[in-house]
User: Fold this.
Amino acid sequence: MPKPTEAPPTTLPLPATPAAAESLVSSWGFPHVFTWTDRRNAHYPPHAHSSLTTHLILKGQLTITYPKDEKPTQETFGPGVRLDVGAGRLHEVWTGSEGCTYVIGE
Assistant:
């Protein structure tokens, strides 16, 4: 299996099924892949992960900021977007009014 590498936010065609979405994320080289749903208006305070993570958004919206960036901004992403967060990169996340379902690879 190839080692995953960080990609910029990219919009992709949505896979037809959750299983197909998980298979796609797995094909990017992530050994642990699962589908996760957050409730509406969920918030994750600033945190970091020890390895690269990816999020393929299937439904809803996710807003992210990187508080330690020189000029932090908030960006919102929706269905079909692949969003990677580099290892050790501090980030904060909110979900929209519908919540958010995404496939996570780590």
